[in-house]
Amino acid sequence: MTLWPRLPFHADETLLSYADRLSILHTGRGMDRLVRDLGINTEHFTAGRGEAVLAFAEAVGLPVNDAERASVRVFQRGASFRREAISKTFLSPRAARYCPSCLEEDGNHADRQFRLIWGFRHVARCDRHSTWLLAAACKDEINLRLALGGERLGSPRAATPEPPEYLTWLRARLSGGACLGSSWMRGQTLEQVLAASEMLGGILQHGHKVALTKLSPEQIEEATDIGFSIYSEGPEAIEEALDTIRVTSPATAVQAGPLAYYGKLFDWLDRRSNAIDPGPIRDILRDHIVKHSAIEPGTRVLGVEITERRFHTLYSLSTAVGIERPRLSRLLKKLGRIPSSATEVETGNMVFEVDKTVPLIEAFKTAIPLHDVPEYLGASQRQVEILYRVGVLLPLVPRPERGAVRNVVFGRSHLDDFLKRISDLPALDDAAVGNYHPISYACQRGAGRFEDIFGDILEGQTLAFRHSEKSGVSAIYVDVRSLVSIRKSA
Q1: pTM of this prediction?
Q2: What are the backbone angles phi and psi of residue 312, rounded to the nearest 5°?
């Protein structure tokens, strides 16, 4: 048999608040009396234990699902809400704050309802009346009747500007409605979204050493709103925010680590969020650290061991390629990897991508000077100079860079690719040798400029063959008469 008469249950009210109102109606006393009379352990019900909530719902004729959605399960070291693990400070069932305008609308003392949304740490205002929530006289009570302590309601204090976007999202999530950014945040818990938003916004607004616990409720709201506007857009927007956080870091030391670059965000994800899964923000930050820092293989970053190096510092790169740091620094400036105006400190703080930098340096170590290229390519000095001038042969040191004229060297792999394109030409048949001549001979007989004929051959516009007994450019044979006739007709 269920309790009668019943009171209307409001979906935005906590179960403890409803139980207290119902008890006043039936017993004239607080929640404890009614719960005991129903044979339910008061402490278990206050802590939101499942069996106690179920027993209460059945006894008062309340749908079990509604009762569960309105209760907060409190453990010794944590809590849960709607099957989501949360920290105790994130959502409290205690009636610590209230909106005086809402309570005025409720009417009598016995009809005042403590709204579930007021228990969230990130909620500092009533979005219905655009007023700041006021602190209750007794913050540790489980219902408003006791929390207000018989005192009169405080005067509403207007909150400006418009309610933050995350508050609209939170109310929609609580009511089961459509939410902003649902495609990205649908699988994340309330605390994962709001805690990450608060941390991002807090650092962007107050710096790397921000103490979130010392911020006022209004400042927490502002920080969370700033972070939420970024977080709700997804990983790419978060990475851009991390770029800003890293760039604005006060860290200047060469050995500065992630804590110096990312401040309290890294500290939170590395040490202070072990009890509650922080969500995808941890993986996003780890990837950002690995992308922008020279992490040694075997180092654990935010709980994951990094097995492959992706970046080098100048120091580690010097060890890897076997070139002393001063010489390596000069070389990287010649290669355009370090700005020519960079100071020693700036150079020491730079990181270099392994996949791009190491092969480039290794290529430089085995590079072939310009004066040795003709022999390597089976070409004349003039032919090599022409190919260099027109950009077919590319030096390792870019032409616009300082030292390019004095350090004209070519990567061995680049020259080998050049030779391979020649070796891919069809072999010249012995019977046709008399009808074909070297490309240099063709140029001398008026077939055209060397660079033009050579370019047409590589593009497949001019038929050419490879002499099997020669190598490189000297192995290229063409039909001189055909080329001359084409040139004359043009």
Answers
A1: 0.71
A2: -120, 150
